[in-house]
Design brief:
By secondary structure, the protein is α/β, with parallel strands linked by helices. Helix content is 48%, strand content 20%. It folds into two domains: 17-170, 3-Layer(aba) Sandwich (Rossmann fold); 180-329, Reverse transcriptase/Diguanylate cyclase domain (Alpha-Beta Plaits). The protein has a five-stranded parallel β-sheet, with helices on both faces. Helix 9 crosses helix 10.
Amino acid sequence: MTQEPELVPPLPENYSSMVLLVDDQIMVCEAVRRALSNEPDIAFHFCTDPLKAMAVADEVKPTVILQDLVMPGMDGLQLVRAYRKNSSTHAVPVIVLSSKEDPSTKGEAFAAGANDYLVKLPDRIELIARIRYHTRAFLDHVQRDAAYRALRESQRQLISANLELERLTRIDGLTGLGNRRYFDEYLAAEWKRAFRTKGPLSVLMIDADNFKRYNDAYGHMAGDEVLKQIAHAIQTGAGRSNDLAARYGGEEFVIVLVDASMEHANAIASRLVQNVRDLNIPHDSGRVTVSVGVATTVPNENESPNDLVKAADLALFRAKSEGRDRVVVDGV
C-alpha cells in the first residue's frame, strides 16, 4: 500500500462530478476510489448497503451513480427502477456495473432505466471518460434550474461534513492508519469474500518490542513519534493496494492480507520486521524492533474472523517469548 492513504477522500475544491458507487464489496469501492482519487473534478462517495442506497443518493445528490447488479438483499435492476421513480434521482445518469458482458443482461439494464453499462472493474481511462460524459449531460439538465447554485453550496457543506465524519470514524488519529473499527469491518467483509471464493486470508499481528520501557525512558511524546515511524514502515511494507494496515491498539498493529498464502504472508512479515530495524531508532542498548505473529486460513463455516485473529495473536505471543524482533507463523 502507499503511504498513509486517505480511506475516505476529501471533497475536491472545484469538482463537477459527484460519483455515488453502490456496491456491497468494499474492495470494489476501494478500487474505484483509487481510480478517481487523482481527478480534481471528480468527488466520490460510496454505499455498501443497497437498502440504504436511495437514502444516500437523496443526501449526496450525485451527478452519476455507479450501480452493481448483484447485491445481497436487493436486485440491482430493482434499485435502478427505484432511482427513476424518485424525484431527486429520476434524471441522474446510472452506469450499471456487471461482472460479465451479457447482451440479455445489458438489455434488461437499459430497459430498467440505466444510461450506460460497464463490465467491472472497467479500465480507469474509460471509467473517467464515461463519468465526465454523463456528468456533462446531467449538469446541462440541472443548470436549467434556478435553484442549482443554492443546491450546490448546501451539497458541498453536507458532503464535506459527512466525509470528515466518515474519515474520523475509520482513521487512527495518531498514525493515519485504519483504526480498530475499520479493521473489524474490513476483516469481516474480506472473510465473507474469501469464504465465497475459497481463497486464503492472512492476518499479521505486530507489536513494538518493550515499548513501555521506551515511553518510560523518553516520554510519551517521543513514544508517539516512534509509533508514527513504525506505522509508516508497516504501511510501506504492507504490499498491495487491497491489503489493509491498521492500528489495533496501543503499540500493536495489524495487517489483513487478501488472497495471501502463508508463504507470502511470512515474506511480508519478515520485510516489516526489517523495515523497522532499518529505522535505527535507539532503544535500551540496541534499537526499536517489532515482533510479528502470522496466521493464514481459508475461511470455512466452522471458523470465524476472530479465530484467525486469535491464531495470529498466539503466534505473536510465541515471537515475544522466543526473544522478540522476529516472525512466528501459526502452526509452524
